Amino acid sequence: MKTIENINLQGKKVILRSDLNVTIKDGKIIDDTRIKASLKTIEYILNQNAKLLIMSHLGKVKTEEDKEKNDMRIVYDRLNELLPDKVSFINDTNYKNIEETLSKIDYGKALLMQNTRYEDLVNKKESNCDEELARNWASLGDIFINDAFGTIHRKHASNYGISCYLPSAIGFLIQEELDHLNILDNPEKPFIVIMGGAKVSDKVEIIDSMMKKADYILIGGAMANTFLKAKGYEIGSSLYEEEAIVTCKELFEKYDNRIILPVDFFGKTNDKKELENLENISKDFQILDIGTETINNYKKLLQQAKTAFWNGPLGLYEEEDFRYGTKEILEYIKDNVKTVILGGGDIVSASNILGYTKDITFASTGGGATLEYLSNHKEPGLINME
Questions:
Q1: How far apart are CA 13 and CA 228, in angstroms?
Q2: Is residue 59 flagged as an active site residue?
Q3: Its pTM surpasses 0.85
Q4: Is there a catalytic annotation at residue 258?
Q5: pLDDT averaged over every residue in the chain
Q6: In which domain, by residue range, is 104 found?
Q7: 25: which strand partners?
């Protein structure tokens, strides 16, 4: 894989695809982790006396209203605080207008362009990797650096498309991601996978891939309900995927003795919080977190683990009452498991909220990208980086 340090950037016009797709609530960025994670690559390029054009998407753009709520200016404001007087902003995605503005930018400085997905409003040109759009954007630079790990599994104009027309390499963020995720190709054993979140259907490939290497997979979150339903257990009014029950049964046939399910739960009956055993679930009970016996069972299995990979929280961590299981297991593995890799998405958000990320070996910035990379290692955003 060609890295940013293998390519001469001195005095060049560099296009950088970053992942600045932050979460915004009430007009404020609530987690700037992805912006901060991009700084090392941005600063390295600027220190090479290069002229830098930064691209990123923000949310999804299907309507004019989406453009307004996914305006990159809020990201620019935060980036400007972190890199004062080094970055300018252009409220445009048209290559001709960007070219004109870029021509006025000094070398050693950067220009952040508007949300690449503004180009999705007509014929989804960005997401469908429109050839003309990719070629036009590529014309703005001499070199392309892809550092948007969260989109490597997408064949978009702003990553794969541009890389077809320019000498290309990966940035420091992607390099760090791959270095850590590649540990899981041959993990130190015992190796345990923790899998939570809502949907089984999104994670079949990664479960299948990981179970070829893992000693156990510990299941939590709403996806556990689907596994339990497939086993014939009562799960009350809890969320599950009817269409994934057959898939769960197939996974049980392959890995039954290594798929570990919860045996008790925190949840609600008529809005009242309760702790309930699996054998006593009523039709009105809603499962929202793993219970104390399950937590103890999972800790016992993790006690001997040398490596752990975790994707998806074990309960409804957004509500303080139902983040207990996620908190307890995070606290345990940070102190007791040698190598812990968090697989992006909500488990990293939960870890950030609970304050454990600094003590974890590695927290991926990807979500779907992490899972797809671990499943097959053949991602569109990396094809032209070799």
A1: 55
A2: no
A3: yes
A4: no
A5: 95
A6: 4-173
A7: 28
